[in-house]
């Protein structure tokens, strides 16, 4: 089955001077131009290509990777605007992604970098983009558990914090107290479920919550000490940036964790770092 807007593995059925023709099933054949053709390709071999509709609404193939395929979000730059809508750089040479005016939450302008969801319009069959995410999210109950790891895409910034897309299906919020490291619109990262409220809204964290995050970090700290000869130049006096660079955690969590490890007799805290206590 051919899936337009996705990567497809197609068979080479004809070789021409300007490229190769691929069997695109119900769409007939499609040309893969020479600049995308793998060296030494022969009839009968298969090649992975991204399929889309060109400006004349004909099936087209490329080995270029789009910023986002159908059903995905991606950060794109607005390259042009006309009477139809805005056109975003899609990562496909010569083919920008249309974002119709009806699919814009606010009017877009050239040069803007925005998060876009890519989908196939049922009425026209065209692949288009939208910045109206609500109709694609929160359509199913949020059945997550506390400290469950999830995939996040940072979508918006507000006075409350950062609004994120959870596993491509739900909205979630990262409050300022749970933010560390650099977050920006379009960033993809791992996060954790902090709390699901009675109204179904999801609170998120960038590290495990409660004792679970300390247990997880404890293991990472001990392993890092063992790998680096028993000493790390990090302590409760280190900057949040230095701690985050090494362990991807907040300074507060790091201080609590090394404090607990100190009480357990597993490490000592020195002026310039922490040292692993060697077993007798």
TrEMBL record:
Occurrences of domain S1 motif (ranges): 3-64, 69-132, 145-207
Any matching Pfam family: S1_2
Family per record: Belongs to the CvfB family.
Name recorded for this polypeptide: GntR family transcriptional regulator
Biological source species: Vibrio tritonius
């Amino acid at each position: 089955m051919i899936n337009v807007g996705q990567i497809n593995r197609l068979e080479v059925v004809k070789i021409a001077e300007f490229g190769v023709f691929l069997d695109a099933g119900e769409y007939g054949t499609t040309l893969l131009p020479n600049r995308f053709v793998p060296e030494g390709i022969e009839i009968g071999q298969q090649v992975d290509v991204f399929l889309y509709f060109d400006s004349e609404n004909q099936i087209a193939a490329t080995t270029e990777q789009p910023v986002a395929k159908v059903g995905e979000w991606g950060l794109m730059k607005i390259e042009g605007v006309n009477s139809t809508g805005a056109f975003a750089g899609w990562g496909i040479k010569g083919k920008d992604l249309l974002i119709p005016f009806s699919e814009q939450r606010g009017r877009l302008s050239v040069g803007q970098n925005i998060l876009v969801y890519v989908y196939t319009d049922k009425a026209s069959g065209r692949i288009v983009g939208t910045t109206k995410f609500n109709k694609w999210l929160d359509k199913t109950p949020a059945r997550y558990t506390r400290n469950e790891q999830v995939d996040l895409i940072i979508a918006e910034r507000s006075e409350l914090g950062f609004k994120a897309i959870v596993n491509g299906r739900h909205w979630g919020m990262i409050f300022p107290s749970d933010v560390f490291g650099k977050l920006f619109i379009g960033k993809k990262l791992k996060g954790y479920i902090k709390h699901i409220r009675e109204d179904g809204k999801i609170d998120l964290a960038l590290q495990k919550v409660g004792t679970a995050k300390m247990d997880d970090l404890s293991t990472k700290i001990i392993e890092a000490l063992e790998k680096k000869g028993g000493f790390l130049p990090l302590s409760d006096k280190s900057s949040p940036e230095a701690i985050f660079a090494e362990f991807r955690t907040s300074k507060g969590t790091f201080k609590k964790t090394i404090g607990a490890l100190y009480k357990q007799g597993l490490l000592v805290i020195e002026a310039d770092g922490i040292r692993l206590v060697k077993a007798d």
